[in-house]
Every structure is written in C-alpha cells, then in structure tokens.
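Sequence only, no structure available. Ideas?
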Amino acid sequence: MNTVESNIVQRDKVIIKTSVIGIIANLFLSAFKIFVGVLSNSIAVILDAVNNLSDAMSSVVTIIGTKLASKKPNKKHPLGYGRIEYLSAMIVSAIVLYAGITSMVESVKKIINPEDVHYSNVTLIIIAVGIVIKLILGQYVKSVGKKVSSNALVASGEDAFFDAILSLSVFLSAVLYIFTGIAVEAYVGVLISVFIIKAGLEMMTDTLDDILGRRPDEEVTNKIKEILHQEDQVEGAFDLIINNYGPDKNYASVHLELPDVMTVEEIDVLTRRVQEKVYIQTGVILTGVGVYSLNTKDEEAVKIRNDIQKLVLSHEWALQLHGFYVDIPNKELRFDVVMSFDIEQSEGIGILLKEVSEKYPEFNIRVTPDIDGYEL
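Reply:
I predicted one. Tokens follow.
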C-alpha cells in the first residue's frame, strides 16, 4: 500500500472514530434534555434535545457513507464509490432540515396554545453542562475535519458550536422565567428552529456544489504546477481539469507545452514520470497528459507569437494565451485563449479571429476557447 492509499484508509478511520464520539455525546445530551424537557414541560429544551438527536443521526449517516464510499472499484463502478459521501451528506442535510421544520411547527403551536413550564436548578445544571460539552465537541470535530479534509466533519463541528449558542439561549430563557415569571421558551424554540433550518439549507447547498463540481482547490493546483514545472522540458502547463469522484478521489488531465524538437520517446518518458510524481505527492491521478508544441526553431515564429499575445491580452476578458504554434511554410496558426465569464465564448472568438486575421491575413487561423477556472 503506497502513502496516498494509506492516508485514505487512515482518513476513513479518523472520520469514523470522530463520528462515533459525536454519536455518544449527542445521545447522552439528548437523553438528559428530553428527560428535563418532559419534567419541566419546556418545548425549547425538548427541541434542543431533538436537535442533539438529529446530530447523532447525522453522524450515523456519515459513518455509513464513509464505509460505502471506501468500497473498492469494480466493473460496474470503475472509478469507485467515493461520491456516496456526497449523497450521505445530502441525507444528513435533509434530516437537519426536517428537524428544523418540525421544531418550528411545534414551537408555533406552543405560542398559540401556551402551557406552564417548571424549571428547576437541576434543569439549569443539565443545560449548562450540555453547552460546555457541545463547545468542546464542536471544537474537536471541526479541528479533526480540517486535518483530514472532511467537509462533513467541519460542518458537524460548526453545527455543534451553533447548538451551544442555541442551548445558551434556552438556558437564559429558563433563568428569565425563574426570576421574572416571563415565559419566552416557545419563542426561543422558534429561534432554534430558524437556526436549524438555516443550517440544513446551507449543508444542502454546499453538498450540491460538490455534486455539480467546484473550481479546483488552489492549493492542489499550485502543487501540481510546481511539480510539472520542475521538469526542464516543460515550458508551461495548461488546461488542468480535475474530476472529483469523492473526497480525495480526483482524476485529472493537463496539457504540457513542450519544445517542438522533442521525440515521442522523450515525451512518453516525461509524461510517465510526472504522472507518478503528481500521484505520490498530491493523490491526483493524471489520466491524460496532452501536448502543445512550442516553436523553438524559427525566430519569425517567436516574433509572431509575441505580437499576437500582446494583441489578445489587450482585452480584459482574455486571461491567458497558450498552446501557440505557427506553421510558417503552410501558413497555419493556432492557439488557445482562456476567457473570463464576462464575455460569451463565441463573441470573444469572433473578436480575436477578426483582429488576428487583419494583422496576418495570409494565415489560416484557429482559436480554441478555454474556460476560466481550470488553468494553472
């Protein structure tokens, strides 16, 4: 087992261990709060307990998702089961959202038909202990999540911190009732519900972003760039596309700009070497390495490149020019342009073709647009 695979296995163990700790803590808090909530007839305390219970359920789903996602690739799913983690995160967000909506309904009922509550010193102590436990648990889970790059754990840690704040509001409403007789716990229940619903929606949106695809992580792309540019023959690296199939399961392709004097054998040796280095150091699998040929044998070609690069990059929406090659004998010229989302690709290509054709009318010109967000 290599270092990357070992790290993935270790990551899964850490996520499961942390989730188990979260389950135990949340079940412990939920049991005590339900007991106190029923005795005191407090909807706020009961809803706080339900929130803890939903957190425990979320941790269970996280464990199941992690286990399923770690299944080995097979003929039916050759790229593995990593995306199951995103589906489990979606289920968790649905659980949280449902808990929030249910809590809101029950709180509104209590506002419409209020009932007497009966807080005691034991009630306050249990709620206070719950606040401390949630703060400690939240900090622990969030720090572990950042360490192993688990969005699910980071979200759980942040959720635990908000839970502590909500429990504090329940504690303060109880203190207010004991000393003044003013019952605001049903309204606090509404406040808790709003926070739970908000958390559920944010988790769902974040998970949808993972499923739809995000811009590649800048730290990873910079590391890949560093590895590729360590090779003397590599003049540039472009068109990096990373396809994500679950946490730490990334497959990518890239174009390397290489001198036009390199042989196929030399290119083969180079690409195999960089594929191995990128995988070992980042865990990203380079499934394809394309090649751009760089003019090195003709000074006129270099001058044409400089002229066209200056022309293209004079436009604010043209972010980068690469893959440039000019075949002077056959009067052919080609290059790629990275365009921002501020302009339609067809419009940008039309402008560039017109301007370059006016400057070099004798050449057959081909311009390929690239998407902002995949470049190194």
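The first strand starts at residue 236 and ends at 244.
Hope that gets you unstuck.
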